[in-house]
Amino acid sequence: MPNKITKIIIAVAICLLVGFLSGFATQSSVDTWFTTLNKPSFNPPNWIFAPVWTVLYIMMGVAAGIVWAKGFYHLWVQTALYHFGFQLLLNAMWSIVFFGFQKPFWALLIIITLLVLIILTIKWFKVVNKTAAYLLIPYLLWVCFATVLNFSIWQLN
Length: 157
Hints:
Elements: H1 4-30, H2 33-36, H3 49-68, H4 75-100, H5 104-128, H6 130-135, H7 137-156
Helix pairs in contact: 1-3, 1-4, 4-5, 5-7
């Protein structure tokens, strides 16, 4: 049975792997298709995304590891981690749909669903461990920003 630190390391590695794989979809069009889009004035420079996402994936992994360490046999832990897994899947799907398939509208629908799942994940993480829940707040805020950005790009194009 892995200890708490091992579970955190495994969870961080999973989150970073998802981020790395999502990056392939992003890289496929960030220097081509994405440069041709009209973007709002608040669109950050492209270089900012990789470091921000790296920090967020690490924080997400730490949070998930803390929850997992409480014991997967607990119903609340299972529920929290199921929500976490689904939101992580949608997180990856957004990159694939937005950048890979180049479909901002469909990506917008995914990111709105992702926001709901992040909120539910935070709710369930808070039941298990408040620190784990608070570690997801920057992620929630960044995805709120990304949602506004996604909506603006869809509207402008």
